[in-house]
Amino acid sequence: MNITTFRAFKSRNYRLYFIGQSASLIGTWMQKTAVSWVIYSLTHSTFMLGLTLFASQFPSFLFSLMGGVVSDRYNRFKVLLITQVGSMIQAILLAALIFANHYQVWEILSLSVLLGIINAFDVPARQALVYEMVDDKDDLPNALALNSSMVNLSRLIGPGIAGIILEKFGDGPCFLLNAISFMAVIASLLMMRLPKYIKTVHKKNVFGELKEGFGYIKRTPSIRFVIIMLGLISLFVLPFSTLIPYYAKDVFKGTASTFGIIDSFIGLGAFSGAIFLASQKAGANLKQILFINTIVFGTGLILFSHETYYPLALIFVTIAGFGMMSQITVSNTLIQTTVAPNMRGRVISFYAMAFFGMQPLGGLIVGSISKWIGTTDTLMGEGIAALLIACLHWRYLHKEKLKAQEEALLEHQELHPIV
User: Fold this and answer.
1) For a FRET experiment, which of 28, 47, 322, 416 has its CA 20 to 30 Å from that of 154?
2) Short-list 236, 376, 390, CA closest to 303
3) Per residue in 241-275, pLDDT tens?
């Protein structure tokens, strides 16, 4: 690893964002782990785990397009500040509910829905604002890869801490620490020095702008392909995480710590993958990396699905985590580096819709199938689905290569016509 791995840190605003967001994300992963454990402990149902994912992410699917329009029409910095304060209020309410010790499943699900709505406006604004935080736009792919390493490092640390706290002190402190962690990201945003916001006149109404964004994606095959592939992965493969409490409790006969450790090893793999991406030189073939890592993702899940020896299972789930990371990070990077600036918020909202919208539907499908054919076979099926999606990647890359060769041949014939 060399200094170029962290070249985006040259930008002061991005450094502040990275520090604040890192603290907040550790708290977020602690809360996610605690919510899954509380729900599974109350219901002993993998279907309810899928429903919890649905409750937290499906609202993002419903409102993310609106979030994209808001991001393109208004001051993204102010939108992000409002969503972060809203997320902190949601975390405080959830902590209060848990500490009161009279909570029911529907109350946790309701607050998960609230967070999903907030995230629909948060994600497009946050992702689009990263572009403005980076002074040298050549460092944008590095900044997005570092973002991913931050998300996955927090996934490595958060669940592990949550597992220990759940076992030693109960579930309340996990929710309280998440609420406190939002103070870090709010402080970092207030310390930034961003360019003065210039208000632009929007001649179209909200629905006109949505239609314009959709039309832009239809006319841009490379972006359209990335969003479709992410949607398929989110629907059929990424919901594997909803089944992890089953493995912790029933396969490995463990406790909350076991659940936290497995989740942390997924994070370890994903963090390693993100650092690998951040270390890539400018101009690296990201589509090729995405194709290879989709195969790695599927292979890791297949190997993990029926493994009963705990240490070996942790190795396999780490491999899956490494492959999983590319789906989100590379997709985001490919979009951010090719999209027109005035379309950034709307296109990211379609990306968020594919990511947040398909996962909860997939969570319900996976939860239902697991009751029918068993959890281990369901997870193996998700690994096989990843390999099939990798075949679609290969087909697309092959077509792109042939097209490039045809264009090169035509160019050569124009420059050197046969007399």
Assistant:
1) 47
2) 376
3) 888 888 998 899 888 788 878 988 988 888 888 78
Q: Which residue has the tokens 């550790």?
A: 26
Q: Out of 272-281, 291-300, 363-372, which region has the weakest mean confidence (pLDDT)?
A: 272-281
Count the residues in the chain. 419
Instruction: Give the C-alpha distances (Å, rounded to integers) separating 270 from 34, 106, 275, 314.
Output: 20, 32, 9, 13
Please say whether the beta carbons of 139 and 278 come within 8 A. no
In the chain the first and final C-alpha atoms are separated, in Å, by 54
With CA atoms as reference, report the closest residue to 112 among 22, 38, 45, 21.
38
- What are the tens digits of pLDDT across the range 50-71? 788 788 878 887 888 888 888 8
Side-chain-side CA neighbours of residue 254 (13 Å): 21
Q: Are 67 and 349 in contact (CB under 8 A)?
A: yes
Q: Are 362 and 77 in contact (CB under 8 A)?
A: no
- Residue 1's pLDDT band, with cuts at 50, 70 and 90, is very low
- What does the H/E/C string look like for the chain? CCHHHHHHHHCHHHHHHHHHHHHHHHHHHHHHHHHHHHHHHHHCCHHHHHHHHHHHHHHHHHHHHHHHHHHHHCCHHHHHHHHHHHHHHHHHHHHHHHHHCCCCHHHHHHHHHHHHHHHHHHHHHHHHHHHHHCCCHHHHHHHHHHHHHHHHHHHHHHHHHHHHHHHHCCCHHHHHHHHHHHHHHHHHHHCCCCCCCCCCCCCCCHHHHHHHHHHHHHHCHHHHHHHHHHHHHHHHCHHHHHHHHHHHHHHCCCCHHHHHHHHHHHHHHHHHHHHHHHCCCCCCCHHHHHHHHHHHHHHHHHHHHCCCCHHHHHHHHHHHHHHHHHHHHHHHHHHHCCCCHHHHHHHHHHHHHHHHHHHHHHHHHHHHHHHHHCHHHHHHHHHHHHHHHHHHHHHHHHHHHHHHHHHHHHHHHHHCCCC
Q: How far apart are CA 97 and CA 182, in angstroms?
A: 18
